[in-house]
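Shipment paperwork, digital attachment
Item: protein structure file
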Amino acid sequence: MPITALLIVDMQNDNIHAGGAFAGTGAAAHAASQDVISNVRSVLDAARSADIPVFHNKIVVHPNPAIGGANAPIFRMLGPESLKLGSWGAAIVDEITPIDGEIVLDRIRMNAFGGTSLDIMLRNLGVADVIVVGVWTNMAVEHTIRDAADRGYTVTVVSDATSTINTDWQHAALSYALTNSATITDTATTIATIEARTRRPASEKTAPQ
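Attachment content:
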């Protein structure tokens, strides 16, 4: 059976916390309406129990914000204080704090593969399938899924373990933009799938390469 990995995208204070830099955009409210922190944590707990590799991704702004570029509106809205490298805002929310053995990758692009070693790490582990959760659905999550599909991975996105700034953007991403790049499912189904994989006899499981 193909090896699966969990990709957690941008679960950072500035992106989803009520005290974060982007709370005024509606991001914190939409995250709360999706119960995204709790749902991501549930998927994460299932992945940990099943020994599924976990990769946390963070978008960060360096002291010289020009490093991140200003070629697109999304990059121009970052910094100089939001998502500042080493700050509370750029940190992963407490409920999703990585544990020993989980990889944390910083980047300056929307896509979790952009400028990181994510692809080679996944390939070294023999990963063929990725589960994607996190924020924002129509931006970093969508970019990551499209690139993962282009690189040959089979992608599952967990709809209620993602959020953005409002329901319109969420609907656009999950009902239109991502329908040809990923299987769209929910937290309960994802956990059941992971648990079914865990219950299979050890002789039928595929060990990491």
